[in-house]
Amino acid sequence: MSTATLPPRHRTQRTPRQGRGGDTAITGTSLLARALVRRTRWSWLAWIVCLVAIFPATAGAYRQSVPDTAAGAEMARTLAANPTMRAILGPPFDLLNVGPFVMWRVGTFAIALAGIMAILGVVKGTRAEEEDGRLEVLRSGAVGRHAPLAASALVSLAGCAAVGLLAGAAMAGPSGDVIGSVALGLAVGLGAAVWVGVAAVAAQVTESARGARGLALGALGAAYGLRAVADGSDPMITGLQWASPLDWPALSRPYADERWLVLLLPAALTAALVALAFVLEGRRDHGAGLRPATLGPADASRSLRDAPSLTWRLDRTTVVSWSIGLAIFAYGMGTLASSLSTLLADNPVLAERFRRMGAGAQDLQDAFYVAMIGILVPIVALLALQLFGVLRREEERGHAELLLSTAVSRPQLLVSHVAAAVLVPTLVLVGLGFFMALPQVVAGDGLGLAVTLAGAGLAQLPGVLLVLGLAVALHGWLPRLGLVPWLVVGWSLAMSWLGEVMGLPEALVRATPFAPLPRLPVEQLAWTPIVVSLLVALALMAVGLVGYRRRDLSTG
């Protein structure tokens, strides 16, 4: 059989024009990079602005967190020695100065978010484009085989560099230390760049964009968990710290006797992973992954008899990976809660900070649980948006149109995805309460706490549904504004993580869909905000359904 008779997926990818890895293999990289920036510029801009703003905002609230008094110095010492705080935020160095404090307080958190930005950017420009068939069209022209991967990596690395450069520049004034700010900028930029390489490799391993995102985000979650275990141990497990790339930026010690050689670790790992991605791309067929997909049965099973069944099949990998990651995080936080009161007994200033994060609870353990739920609920809202976002991807690939050509109606298709995005977060919120209380359950007296925390999570569910309702309404009428619900959740997460600690105005901190809802078990159960939020969410979903029945799918 001649090569010309083979389907495109199985043809040999190396052609005389592309050569064996010379410059022609990346022909057209600059053109593809410009096109990618044009299509994704607003999402990159939103990511970069939000990430950079975290650093000067935290610096501005430094003296509210660590007063310039003897009590402030004692609080800084307690913070540095507290395993709970180290597990959440990372290893501290010299918290009596604003620069090291900012790096400790938000550095690792911002780098992890920048890593998510990098992963999404690389997968969108590589595996997602390949899965949708656009790369095959591009490669039929004067475009080298590795040009799409090179363009996506360059754009994502530029995004990481922009975050690092601007974060360092923003901290030069508040810290008064230009050298330390340069170190912070390099640490942030290089720490995020590692995940460009991880995503580039993941895009070669799997056959789907969803699988590549799941693999890369799973690696990021594992690195964060490994870092939390190493930093939260008492004493810290030094060897394990160096095993997590998310700990390297902090270990380079910006503003605190900088260790410049440590920054070679993320730089070298990024270069090695990107080079590996190019090698792996040369060893696979277009449209395929290094891990081949198994053949399914000739006939569909009864579990694929309708639209909801298909939706579950599309969502199950995302649901399993998110559920496992959130359960591990909730359990880890639960193990820290029981020792919090003892650790903060001699530090009333720090204890008061925890009470502010925990809706003013006098009991520090209750305050800790409320604060953790406040952080986890916006993350669950992200899960809801990702599950509903599957419908948009199915439309872009033409799969939804094929499905609608059968007996499936538009309302059935929309409702199947909305139902999954409602049911899964509901179950996850209940599960998070159980896993957070699991250490107490194992100790023999935590069943009541598990029920209480599950109820606390469910009390915040209307906020998740409100965000989902906004996404449904926009998808029905203005699908090009689909980024708006993600920005709302991002703002909510930033306020839950930083708002109270930084002492931001109350009106600003409470400008989220979750703020009006009761924060159990500290606050009284108030049904009015719950019912109002549910009614508004249902109304938004109904509006979205009306719009979805009327609009042309191609306008999305």
UniProtKB/TrEMBL annotation:
It comes from the Bacteria. The keyword NAD does not apply. The keyword Disulfide bond does not apply. Keywords: Membrane, Transmembrane, Transmembrane helix. The chain crosses the membrane at residues 44-62, 102-123, 149-172, 178-202, 214-230, 260-280, 319-340, 367-391, 412-437, 449-474, 481-499, 526-548. Residues 1-25 are annotated as: Disordered. This is ABC transporter permease. It comes from Arsenicicoccus bolidensis. The lineage of its organism: Bacteria, Bacillati, Actinomycetota, Actinomycetes, Micrococcales.
